Amino acid sequence: MSVRFVIDPLEFVKNAGNHHDKIPLDELARLHDLLFDREGEIIYRITGRFDQNEKPGLYLRINGKIHLNCQRCLDKLVHTVDLETFLLLAKDEFELYQADDDDSVEAILATPELDVASLIEEEVILSLSISSRHVEGECSTLELETTDDHLDDNPQPAHPAHPFSALAALKKAN
Prior knowledge:
Elements: E1 6-7, H1 9-14, E2 18-24, E3 41-50, E4 56-69, E5 76-90, H2 93-101, E6 106-109, E7 114-115, H3 116-127, H4 165-173
């Protein structure tokens, strides 16, 4: 496990901090349940800067390729992570509450010790679709082969009316 990069975000912005690194997917534990495998890494750059209103914030650039589980076929789905965001730093709960009222602003609470890897992991998780799947026609599907031994006197329609009729036919065949 690599050494975690922890910052005081307000000091990081004040000092015009700039940091880039790679995080192996194996180190992002909260992401593991969403992954097909743990191959690859996330590359990021974090920069502390002030916005046009002189409010402190963190600019994040996150890239990488991860393998998700396709929810349709349960096979590997290659997903490209390409995120760019600016997170306004709220100094207290009241500022965070005010920032939440503005839909055009993303804000986080400026805690004295911010684990950058956890922040990157959170942004990746939030960027993912609720149901990741291949585009139509790209899923690897289980194709059943029928033989003359398994054919019934009643031919099956090409598209069964009921989604479980193919299972019923398999049950009868076996």
